[in-house]
Specification:
FAD/NAD(P)-binding domain, 26 strands, alpha/beta, 5-stranded parallel sheet
């Protein structure tokens, strides 16, 4: 075992967690972690949230503390790019000409932002947000204030728009889709987030795409497909990402919307594995291949790939999990939105306004807000009283649960192990129906429970930490 070399290409969250898991499992061979950026592995969620706004320190974005890799004898090579992979010879070639041999290799190369193909896209002031360096540049822009156009109403666009407004900038969101996040969650949640952004002062130019970026050397305005001209100081483009598969294609691996891997995360070539944004993995629960571009997938898939590299019997069957924090609204979702069948309202959770005009998000988490006449059946109230405190903290807020037509036995029995601490399958079958509060709160949608999908909203500060 000690003579073996396990190599990880991509110093990402998935790659860093895989390296950590190899040592946790007792692997005493050589572990080489190669990253093209100058930074040690870091997490991406803070880049659109607290770190972007200057509310958290840079150190908190990193996956591991300074000195972790040296202490665990993990050879971390930053600012190094792998240009070729030879599965037959079990060798990689780096941009500086070095050749390194391996016994097993994990590809955690991630994804890169899709570039917008319009005139003026190369002007100074047109930004993309993917790396820590991108975020640092945008933090400087936010510090100077001004007007920003956000192109795209998906995850990146919506969260950046929220952070920019929280920093006091004038924000215009442009997207050819009529509602933010509609491609992901459909019109119900999309309409909610449209209203959230509008209530916080974001100017919405939805249903119209970008025709061109204009300016004399630097961006000065954005022209939409309808002819509308929007003056701005800079723009942020967030129109999705594409998996980095060039290395895999050059190595002759099977590629289709990512690197094709089985449920053990092994690719089409022996001793080659893939994890994270780049992996298009067979999922035994859904019975199809899926590729997930979110934090939880990288966090959990990397360790599973590491155990597969060690020859352990594994199967990556976690349900996809997503979360988003925008302003004072947090949302969590498990499952695949595109597999939606019947939908139902599951939870209504959000900070409510106090008489003074502020929000009582902190108090809301500590006090009971249910009506005096609890409509839950007595047996359900007794069960809820027996649950641990952490399982009931969200239930103490005002909720609205629609009656489901299928029993809880169709729900995967342990949603907590899939990275989601929320209402489980047994609670989904409760036939509770409460009167809505006078001030409507966030309505979130559930996919058909046969897909294992659950959505809930909560104040951002209550997200389950790893």
């Amino acid at each position: 075992m000690s003579a073996q070399t396990f190599m990880i290409v991509g110093a990402s969250l998935a790659g860093a967690k895989a390296a950590e898991e190899l040592r946790t499992q007792g692997f005493d061979g050589r572990v080489v972690l190669i990253g093209s950026e100058q930074e040690r592995p870091y997490e991406r969620p803070p880049l659109t949230k607290d770190y972007l706004r200057g509310e958290s320190e840079r150190e908190k974005a990193y996956v591991h503390a300074q000195g972790f890799y040296e202490a665990h004898e993990i050879e971390l090579e930053t600012d190094a790019t792998v240009t070729a992979l030879d599965p037959a010879a079990r060798r990689v070639t780096l941009a500086d000409g070095r050749e390194l041999c391996y016994d097993r290799v994990l590809l955690a190369t991630g994804a890169e932002p899709r570039r917008i193909p319009v005139a003026g896209a190369d002007l100074d002031g047109v930004h993309y947000l993917r790396t820590l360096a991108d975020c640092d540049a945008l933090r400087e822009r936010l510090d100077t204030g001004g007007r920003v156009v956000v192109v795209g109403g998906g995850w990146i666009g919506s969260e950046f728009a929220a952070s920019a407004r929280q920093r006091g900038l004038e924000v215009t969101m442009v997207d050819p889709v009529p509602l933010p996040l509609e491609r992901i969650f459909g019109p119900q949640i999309g309409a909610f987030y449209r209203d959230v952004h509008r209530d916080h002062g974001v100017e919405l130019a939805l249903g119209e795409g970008v025709e061109a970026f204009e300016g004399d050397g630097a961006l000065a305005r954005v022209r939409t497909a309808t002819g509308r001209v929007i003056d701005c100081d800079f723009a942020v483009v967030g129109i999705g990402v594409a998996p980095r598969v060039d290395l895999a294609i050059g190595a002759g691996l099977e590629v289709d919307n990512g690197i094709l891997v089985d449920e053990t995360l092994q690719a089409s070539a022996p001793s080659v594995f893939a994890a994270g944004d780049v992996a298009h993995a067979w999922h035994p629960f859904f019975g199809e291949r899926i590729r997930v571009e979110h934090w939880s997938n990288a966090l959990n898939q990397g360790p599973v790939a590491a155990r597969a590299m060690l020859g352990q019997p594994v199967s990556y069957d976690r349900l996809p999990y997503f979360f988003s924090d925008q302003y004072d609204v947090g949302m969590e979702y498990s499952g695949l939105p595109r597999r939606a069948g019947r939908r139902c309202v599951h939870r209504l959770l959000a900070p409510r306004r106090t008489r003074g005009g502020g929000h009582e998000r902190q108090r809301l988490g500590r006090q009971r807000t249910r009506p005096s006449a609890d409509p839950l059946p007595r047996a359900d109230r007794a069960r809820r009283a027996r649950r641990p405190r952490h399982a009931t903290r969200h239930a103490r807020r005002r909720v609205c649960t629609a009656k489901l037509t299928e029993t809880a036995t169709r729900w995967p029995r342990n949603p907590t192990r899939n990275g989601h601490r929320g209402v489980g399958g047994s609670n989904l079958a409760r036939h509770a129906s409460r009167q809505l509060p006078a001030r409507p709160l966030l309505r979130t949608a559930l996919d058909d429970i046969r897909t294992g999908a659950i959505a809930q909203a909560r104040p951002p500060s209550t997200r389950l930490k790893r």
